[in-house]
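Go through this chain.

——
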Amino acid sequence: MNPLQRIHSAFGEAGATGWLHAVDIDSGAEISAGADQPVVTASVHKLPLLLALHRQAAQGLVDLTEQVHCVPAHRAGGPTGLSAMLDPVRISLRDAAYLMTALSDNAAAELILERVGLDAVNATTASLGLTRTRAVRSFAGALATLREDAGPTGVQALSDPHVIARLRALDPARTNHSTPRDMTTLLRAVWRDEAAAPEHCAAVRRLLGLQVWPHRMASGFPFDDVHVAGKTGTLPTLRNEVGVVEYPDGGRYALAVFTRAANPAATLPAVDAVIGTAARIAVDGLRTR
């Protein structure tokens, strides 16, 4: 089988529908498996927010060392970082950006979004030509629609296919969205120092390289000399990751993998792993051309 057939087969075996785009950052060679399909970004949209923050900093509109106060009563929910803390916290914007990126901390993301604004996020993606990428609501707002749409039974309802079908948070037309190609275009611009001033692109690359989650894209590249930097996104039935894989010979590849599982279970290791499997197949395909 060719790489594209192998990618589709891997998604099917994992019990998921998947969309992928992979591009050689330097040559522009690409592999597409539904690269222009509209997809829900979930926490992947923290990457455009991170870039918007750094572009504002480059323009002198934001001081990355500015201290912001985060109190428990006003925090966005989530299992990591500030979202999981019990006491008031004072933190710089750049350290909040670390928590948002490395841990996917929703409360940290909300602190930054309050300072930057949705309009700036959308202006950032538009300036890069990402015409199919848009931030519609905050991360806390997206979680609020989940609670509203699930109804009075709460998270237990998320195992019901009829409830899953009505969730606005899973509909690209009604929530934050993009395409795999748009996301690799953004990553390519960051790695080529074209998305912002070089020092700010370097800062974005650093934070993506500090992501703590090894179970998705990084699982496909279990080598000490291959570096994976990325950002995950997760919602019921959705598991995503976008990132860049760098080889010791200088090869560097931007990847975006978005999946939707038929099974609504919160834990699906096979679907997490297929993100790494599909990414590896795509990179191997690009490296052997």
